[in-house]
Task: structure prediction
Amino acid sequence: MGRGHPGRVTPKALEYLKEVVDYGFGNSTGPNMGNRFEAAFAKRFGVRYAIAQCNGTATMHSCLAAAGVKPGEEVIVPSLTAAATAFCCLHQGAVPIFTDLDAKTFNIDPESIKERITPLTRAIIPVGLYGLSADMDPIMELARKHNLTVIEDNAQCFLGEYKGRLAGTIGHMASFSLQASKHLTCGDGGVVITDDQKLADGVRRFGVFGFRIADSEGVMSKEARGHPTSLRHDFLGWNYRMSDLQAAVALEQTERIDELVDLRKKIGAMYLEAVKDCTYLIPQYTPPEYVHSYWTFVCRFEAKEAGCTWDDFRNTFRSLGGDFLYGAWQLTYNEPVFQERRFLGGSFPIDSEIYKGKRQEYKPGLCPTAESLQPKLMQFKTNYYNLVEAEQQAEALRKTIEAINGKKGNENAGFPL
Result:
């Protein structure tokens, strides 16, 4: 199944999809695929609640709403990650405050968080970048000290571990993405996990228009909500529901989560072996007592040491059989949407009267470590579903390193080969 990605989705997903289609899409009855997916996901992570939604940005937005973050308040986010981490703050009318990174792990730096906490700070969103958990103990200590909510953005970090604990089970809530490139996918989708019933209720209700009839356990009975005296909406919510078709595939993926994540770990180990003696490709550092789940394999490329440019390296890699090689996202605050305040019809909330904080200046020097790292990072794909194909990519990387080494110091050498 799946000619493009053998092993990505198994025939079991077709069985679950058939259950949904054969029933014919009931509104509150049927095969209950959403409930089944949520129960399986919660069980694997050892938490009380899992709430499925349409994508991983919706889940983070819902977490902020459940945490009670108000317009004009601040949310601390890393400067290097997918833009959705900051965008969800703007969706809530909150102000994202960008922090610097740890130079070795490329993850959010707890010291930078500490420097940026103000009386307006309400939440922190640490990201498990590339499959590696953030340093959660000092982050949780800061949260306790300042009464902040911690929302782990685990879109890239399924079954990563931090000091013996699963990433996503340490903060107050965690958000996962099921977009096509992620460890688990149903095409697109998201899920929130938490042990806090109040937060779970808030996430679920926010994703169904703020219905009073929805809570952490699901939806109130048809009899109760169908009465003419029923009051349905006591706060503003959005329509972030996951469809039963998405849930059917997500259930199949959850049942195979260990298999799918283990495959990525093995591919990450192949790349690590390929670069172990390379002085100019420095892989993301995995501290002791962490387990990396390798959404992708990332290195810092030192062009001066290599004797060639970032583009030279990528072109050589591809000429030797390598797949596409990605650079890191631009730092979010350097994107035009932030540089030119192109959000919510103008500059709201960052430059509006509602915001009483000190505005960050999106200029060089805001996050110096991140600014130094971003142009150097190389992301090698781990999104393969057989080890033969992955080994070919690791071999292409080895050949590229050999070729670059062979040309170092040779002024007449051209790139690519």
